[in-house]
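Quick question, first post here. What does this chain look like in 3D?
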Amino acid sequence: MKRIVEHRSALPFGTVVEVHVRRGPVADAPVLATVNVTRFKLDLESFAGPLPVADAFLQALAYAEQAGIACAWIDDPDGLFPPEKRPVHDVTVS
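> Answer (accepted):
Ran it through. C-alpha cells below.
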C-alpha cells in the first residue's frame, strides 16, 4: 500500500515519487501532470510528460510499487486533482 501525501511537510526522508499537477499558461489549457522521483530534493528520474493527470497518477503508483517506494506526493496547489477524481486501485482484487 502506498501512502499518498498532500503536504510537503509530511514527506518522509528517502525516495519519493512526485506528481506535479498544473494547468497550462492559457486560460482554457488542459490540466496535466509530470512525474519524477526524488531523494532529499535531488532529482533521480523524470518521466515523459506532461500526461493527463489520471495517467500520471497511475504511472507514479505503478513505479512506486515496482521500485518499493512507500510514498507518493501529489503536488496540486490549485486543487485541480482532488481525491474524488483520482483513479482507485483495489489491491484486494487480483
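Residues 33 and 56 are 6 Å apart (CA to CA).
The chain has a mean pLDDT of 83.
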